[in-house]
Design brief:
Blueprint: H1 8-12, H2 16-27, H3 33-40, E1 48-54, H4 60-73, E2 78-83, H5 92-100, E3 110-115, H6 123-137, E4 142-148, H7 157-160, E5 163-168, H8 176-183, E6 189-192, H9 200-216, H10 224-234, H11 252-255, E7 261-262, E8 271-272, E9 276-278, H12 287-304, H13 306-331, H14 334-348, H15 354-374
Parallel strand pairs: 1-4, 1-5, 2-3, 2-4, 5-6, 6-9
Antiparallel strand pairs: 7-8
Helix pairs in contact: 2-6, 4-12, 10-12, 14-15
Bound molecules: guanosine-5'-triphosphate and magnesium ion.
Magnesium ion binds near residues 60, 61, 93 and 97.
Length: about 375
């Protein structure tokens, strides 16, 4: 098959080769991908997009492999995108992932793919968004994106995923603490993997304590708006009620699976924090409960209407970034460079000031744009 044979129909019909080709076109920014992406647009928006992120070697790929197995058992079609910004095409990690996930290779309800780009800034993030849209339109019920790194990762998983699973492990040492405190705010579901190792219970306690503190301080976390939307739905004050309300007296059904009460660190018996799940990815221990929490989060997003709000905010952000990239590539054109140099000379010669130069540049770009649209 060559690229010209790649069509929306083929992708939607579950043709894995067409899907693979299309994602390769996305990786190398082939302009001919756009027609196919546009034709797929109408069919998207159904998949649950799950981000798996955490420090290198935390067991994200092993975990993802087990998640795939569990979700398949629930009758869902699953796609996985493994993003590796550091090792384009040749990375050992990617090879490892392929081998690790090989057992799904013959299952046509599973699609696994690593993603890399030639690496100008923002390229990988754009590619990841586009690949997610393709797999969504191709009919995968769950699209899992694995990204290495926490916070500083080039692919902003927080902007792509409906549900972010933040993976931690015991034994990372104290230097990771400072990083952890910040990244705690990006997770929806927290996973402590390698629970077979010493110190797992301590990591669980630390994470819960950090989450409790964040909630009590009214920190702007990723999960705060969902918690608020849910307590509004229930008609109570949730955590905003000073965490003193008798949440614990509600039955499990009312609380929902995604409802956690803890008194551990702070002594507030009814404080609600996100789930913290212990797993041993290698043996599959804890995977069922982890999937339950991921799915409960999806259900909570849907029930509160917050799924739509989150997607709207993400898309608005992505549109802004796309627009900025268009401006940047416009500025790279020879004509633009010449205009920039001319303006720079005028500023140096004290002809105009820096701000006049910026205004003049904006005008020049608008003129080019108008010329382009009327041409
Ligand atoms: N003891 C133990 N080892 C595990 C567990 N899960 C994964 N590992 C091991 O940890 C190592 C790293 O696992 P990966 O799944 O490749 O980790 P990763 O987070 O995907 O790594 P990168 O993608 O390179 O960041 C491998 O040797 C796994 O076998 C676990 O639950 N317990
Ligand atoms: Mg990995």
């Amino acid at each position: 098959m060559d690229d010209s044979a790649v069509s929306a129909d083929r992708v939607r019909a579950g043709d894995a080769r067409a899907t693979a080709r299309l994602i390769s076109m996305i990786e190398r920014e082939d302009p001919s991908r756009l027609a196919v992406l546009k034709a797929l647009h109408a069919y998207g928006g159904k998949a649950h997009v799950v981000g798996i992120t955490g420090p290198p070697g935390a067991g994200k790929s092993t975990l993802t492999d087990k998640l795939v197995g569990d979700l398949r058992g629930r009758g869902r079609k699953v796609a996985v995108i493994a993003v590796d910004p550091s090792s384009p095409f040749t990375g050992g990690a990617i090879l490892g992932d392929r081998i690790r996930m090989q057992r799904h290779a013959t299952d046509d309800g599973v699609y696994i793919r690593s993603l890399a780009t030639r690496g100008h800034l923002g390229g990988l993030s754009r590619a990841a968004s586009e690949a997610v849209r393709v797999l969504d339109a191709a009919g995968y019920d769950d699209v899992i994106i694995e990204t290495v790194g926490v916070g500083q990762s080039e692919v902003d998983i927080v902007r792509i995923a409906d549900t972010v699973v933040l993976v931690s492990v015991p034994g990372l040492g104290d230097d990771i603490q400072a990083i952890k405190a910040g990244v705690m705010e990006i997770g929806d579901v927290f996973c402590v993997n390698k629970a077979d190792k010493d110190g797992a219970e301590r990591v669980v306690r630390e994470i819960r304590a950090m989450l409790e503190t964040a909630v009590l301080n009214g920190a702007a976390t990723r999960f705060t708006p969902l918690f608020e939307a849910r307590s509004a739905l229930r008609g109570d004050a949730g955590n905003a009620g000073g965490a003193t309300e008798a949440v614990a007296s509600r039955g499990p059904a009312e609380q929902g699976a995604f409802h956690h009460i803890t008194a551990q660190a702070t002594g507030h018996p009814n404080l609600e924090i996100p789930p913290v799940v212990k797993t041993v990815a290698e043996t599959g221990e804890g995977i069922g409960p982890l999937v339950d929490e991921i799915k409960a989060h999806e259900a909570a997003l849907a029930a509160t209407g917050f799924l739509r709000s989150r997607r709207e905010a993400n898309l608005a952000w992505e549109l802004g970034r796309g627009a900025a990239q268009r401006v940047l590539s416009e500025l790279e054109r020879d004509e633009s460079r010449e205009t920039l140099a001319e303006l720079a000379r005028s500023v140096l010669d004290r002809g105009i000031d820096y701000y006049d130069a910026l205004d003049a540049l904006e005008d020049a770009m608008k003129r080019t744009q108008r010329a382009a649209t009327t041409a």
